[in-house]
Design goal:
heterodimer; A: alpha/beta; 8-stranded mixed β-sheet; 6 helices; B: alpha/beta; TIM Barrel
Chain lengths: ~210, ~260
C-alpha cells in the first residue's frame, strides 16, 4: 500500500485526501512494520531540517527507510522538507541528511535576489521539468506549483535534477535518481497540477486503482 | 505571463455555517464550508482565506476541528483568521495544516504576537488584516479592540510589516458585500507604504476590479467574498471562480 510517513511534521491529510480523490488509498503511519511493507512511500513534511532528521531518528525509522529506499528500491517521493532530507545536509541545521542523492540544501542567496523578492519564496511558480521523468508524464508545458521555502536543493550532477523554477534565479525544484525523487513544491496544495504528479507517481509504480 | 493570486474569502459563523455579510452586518447563510472548499478545488482557486467572524467578539477559541477539515480538503493553500490572540493558538492552527494565519485586532493591539509568529514560523505564515472605514475625516482603522488604537491604516500596515507580517490584507468595511468595486485610492496608499504583498478585499464585482487593484493600486493579489458566492441581481447563491481563459485574458490585459 502507498504509505505516507508521519514523523510529526504537520497535517498530512491533504496528501492523503488528494490521493483518495485520484482513487488511490494511502495510509499515514509512523510504524516501522507498516513502512516495511509499503509498495511506495511518500516522505512529506514542513519545518526545520534538524527537527525532521531528529524525528526520524527518535521514531527509529532511519533503518527501515534506508532499507526500503536503497535495498528494496521501493519508489519514494519526498515533498518539501521531505525532499530536502534526501540530500546530505542543509544550511538550516547541523544534522546530516539521509544523503541518498548527491546534493545539498542551501539557503536562498539573498545577494542574488532583487530587492522586491523575499525569502521565504512563497506562492505559485511555473515549473520546468525534465521530459523523460514519468512524474511529469502528460503535464502541461509549464505546470504551476505552490512553494513555501527558504532553502533549495543544489545537486552535484545535473542528471539528478528533475525540475526547476525561478525565484530571483533558477533553482532546482526537484531531484530524481532511480526510485528516489523529491519535489520542493507542495503537490497536495497545487490542485490539478499536483494531482497529476501524484497520479503519475502512483501509476508509474504500478499501484492499481482500488488496491493502491 | 505575470500571474497574481485571486483568493476566495469564506466567512464562517458560530454555527460553522458559511455566511456572507454586507458592510460587516446583514448576514446571508450561503451553505456548508466544506462543500464550498470542494467546489473551489474543482475550479482551481489559487488560495483560500477562511475567517471566523464571531470568534473574537464571542471571546471563543477558533473552531479547530472545522479548520483542520478545511485544510485537509483544500488542494490549495489556506489562511485562517478569527479568535486568535496567543502564540500557542497559532502553533496549533498551523499544525492543523494551514499555510497562514490572518491576524487583525490582536496584531494591532499586540505587534509582539506578529513578531513571535514570524520568528517561530516565518513571515510567510503571518498575514495582517487592516479593516478600514471611511468617515468624515477620511479612512480610519477599525478593530475589535476595546481600547482605542490611534493609527492610520497606513501606520497600522507599516507597524505590522515592521513586526514581521509577510502580507497585508486591506479590507474596506464600507464596500463589503456591496459590489461597488475596491477602494482603489486606499489600496494604493497602503501598497505604497509597505514592501510586502498587499491583498485587496471588499467590494469586488468583476474582473475589471481585479485589474484595477493590481494595475492602478499596486496590489499583489486580490480577494473577494460575495463575487464568488452570489450570482445575478437576485443574489442567488452560486459558487463561482473565473475560468482559466478568463484569467489568461486578465493577465494579458495586465501585461499590455
Amino acid at each position: 500500500m502507498l504509505t505516507i510517513v508521519d514523523y510529526g511534521t504537520g497535517n498530512l491529510r491533504s496528501v492523503q485526501n488528494m490521493l483518495r480523490s485520484l482513487g488511490v488509498a494511502a495510509r499515514i503511519t509512523s510504524a516501522r512494520a507498516e513502512i516495511a511493507t509499503a509498495s511506495a512511500l511518500i516522505l512529506p513534511g514542513v519545518g526545520h531540517f534538524d527537527f525532521g532528521m531528529r524525528s526520524l531518528k527518535q521514531l527509529d525509522l532511519r533503518g527501515v527507510l534506508d532499507e526500503m529506499a536503497l535495498e528494496k528500491k521501493v519508489p519514494l517521493l519526498g515533498i518539501c522538507l521531505g525532499a530536502q532530507l534526501l540530500t546530505r545536509g542543509s544550511d538550516e541545521g547541523t544534522e546530516p541528511g539521509l544523503g541518498w542523492i548527491a546534493a545539498d540544501t542551501r539557503r536562498f542567496d539573498e545577494a542574488r535576489l532583487d530587492v522586491s523578492l523575499r525569502v521565504p519564496h512563497m506562492g505559485w511558480a511555473d515549473t520546468e521539468f525534465r521530459a523523460s521523468s514519468g512524474l511529469f508524464a502528460g503535464a502541461a508545458p509549464r505546470p504551476r506549483f505552490y512553494y513555501v521555502h527558504s532553502y533549495h536543493i543544489v545537486a552535484d550532477e545535473e542528471t539528478d535534477e528533475l525540475c526547476h523554477a525561478v525565484h530571483g534565479y533558477r533553482f532546482v525544484a526537484g531531484i530524481e535518481r532511480g526510485n528516489i525523487a523529491g519535489v520542493q513544491f507542495h503537490p497536495e496544495k497545487s490542485h490539478r497540477f499536483g494531482k497529476q504528479l501524484l497520479d503519475n507517481f502512483a501509476r508509474t509504480h504500478g499501484l492499481a486503482r482500488g488496491e493502491r | 505571463m505575470r500571474r497574481f493570486r485571486i483568493i476566495p474569502t469564506l466567512l464562517i459563523d458560530s454555527a460553522a455555517g458559511l455566511v456572507k455579510t454586507v458592510k460587516f452586518g446583514n448576514r446571508t447563510y450561503v451553505g456548508d464550508p466544506i462543500n464550498a472548499v470542494r467546489i473551489f478545488n474543482e475550479k482551481g482557486a489559487d488560495e483560500l482565506i477562511l475567517l471566523d467572524i464571531d470568534a473574537t467578539r464571542e471571546g471563543r477559541e477558533p473552531n479547530y476541528a472545522l479548520i483542520e477539515d478545511v485544510a485537509s480538503e483544500a488542494f490549495m493553500p489556506v489562511g485562517y483568521g478569527g479568535g486568535i490572540s496567543r502564540p500557542a493558538q497559532i502553533q496549533r492552527l498551523l499544525r492543523c495544516g494551514l499555510e497562514k494565519v490572518v491576524l487583525s485586532t490582536a496584531a494591532h493591539e499586540n505587534p509582539e504576537l506578529v513578531r513571535e509568529t514570524a520568528r517561530q514560523s516565518g513571515a510567510q505564515s503571518v498575514v495582517v488584516c487592516i479593516d478600514v472605514k471611511r468617515g468624515m475625516f477620511g479612512p480610519s482603522l477599525v478593530t475589535g479592540s476595546k481600547g482605542k488604537i490611534k493609527l492610520s491604516p497606513e501606520q497600522a500596515a507599516r507597524r505590522a510589516v515592521e513586526a514581521g507580517a509577510g502580507e497585508i490584507i486591506v479590507q474596506s468595511v464600507d464596500r463589503d458585500g456591496t459590489f461597488r468595486g475596491y477602494d482603489v485610492p486606499l489600496l494604493a496608499s497602503i501598497a505604497r507604504s509597505v514592501a510586502v504583498p498587499v491583498i485587496a478585499l471588499g467590494g469586488a464585482r468583476d474582473l475589471d476590479d481585479f485589474h484595477a487593484a493590481v494595475a492602478d493600486a499596486g496590489c499583489s493579489a486580490v480577494a473577494a467574498g460575495s463575487m464568488f458566492v452570489f450570482h445575478g441581481a437576485a443574489r442567488g447563491v452560486l459558487i463561482s471562480y473565473p475560468s482559466e481563459s478568463e484569467l489568461e485574458g486578465l493577465y494579458k490585459r495586465l501585461a499590455a
